[in-house]
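Q: Hi! First time doing this. I have a protein sequence and I read that you can turn it into a structure. Is that right? Here it is:
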Amino acid sequence: MQAPSEKTSRILLATEEEVFNRIVDSAHPFRRLNDIIDFQTLTEPMRAAYSTLGTNGIDVEKGVKALLIQFWENYSDRQMEKAVKENLAVRWFCGFSLTEETPDYSYFSKLRKRIGTKRVAQFFKEVNAILESHGLFGNVFTFIDASTIISKTALWEERDRAIKDGAEKLNNKNVAEYAADTDARWGAKSETNIWFGHKRHATVDMRHGLVKKVAVTAANVPDFKPVTSILPTQGAVFMDKIYDTKKTDAFVRAAGCHPATIRKNTSKEKNRDLDRWRSAVRMPFEGVFSKMSKFARYRGHAKVVMQAFFQAIVHNLKKAVRLLSPAFAT
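A: Yes, that's right. Below is the predicted 3D structure, encoded as structure tokens:
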């Protein structure tokens, strides 16, 4: 078969560009996202660990963009394989040409493992720095809370095995010996709200509801314990009654912030009018946690951390695309 001439190649490239431009117009979220974030620069530090993963060595920028879309659309690995192959908007955003070979489903799990939690945490931090440069963070009021990440809804088979082995019952002391997710534990928000899995701890900036910091623990870790790792460096920190402890207040003040915690009814500092105001101020931002999946996509602490960071990145970028005017791209 004769190779296309230089003129023919130019025509084919022009035609491909026209196709993508029709599918991904100037108002398309993916195009605006590409204009807001310099993915080439942000993904460069991942290149050393990435090497040439994939049959033909898929570029790291393409891979990371694919992972971003996977969480953007809540795709499984197999759904992502199909999307990047068949969806022209996804193909364009990730940087694949119309005729270029795209990765199969096994590529995405390998890529997540190669990148690791430290690099995705840094990626999250750098994305936020870009959004902050556009004025999307207020850094005055922040809201800290925890939400559930469920690994499995029932462990009857695991319980039966534990009892057969002589255990009185399956609990947080022995569940790691029987559960597929050995890092998951039971947690409880109340007598009726009990789950098995992990816990997402997040700091939400109260200007536009963007997630500023994220941490993940087993579900049985008290909410106030990871506070030191997700505190901002200034402003008032709004928290629920469960964070009303002397230690938490001390942590907040040591970080240079002011505790705006809703006090327990038994607290000597309880001011019902002040607490009602605090509840009203934070109420619009409580929905941030409800928009993130309550179920673990993967097993193990490191993989759930990866999930939490990508979900936070996607949450912030979706907000940024809406908040920044279409004129930004021009």
